[in-house]
Amino acid sequence: MYSIIEQGGTQFKVKQGATIRVPLIEAEKGAEITIDKVLLAADGDKIKIGTPVVKGASVVAKVVDHAKAKKVLVIKRKRRKDYRRKNGHRQQYTKLEIVSINI
Known about the structure:
The chain is mainly beta and 103 residues long.
């Protein structure tokens, strides 16, 4: 059994027991959240495709951790003009563990 959910503008394929990294969610560490934006739900040969979401379907996930991703360097440069700028960015994310999928 798996499903495709949307969280933070990104789609994720999830199974029960899987761990995913989603954009930062305002929730306490250890709290359970319910995600209602289920775009597809599959159980063996039975597949339900939402228009745009599957009605009555939800995914329950547990917040494992909040952290920052690896640093991404942003470098700007203009040739022959002695213009150089270097900047770094670390995106915050939330680590979720999928507890159950309800169709």
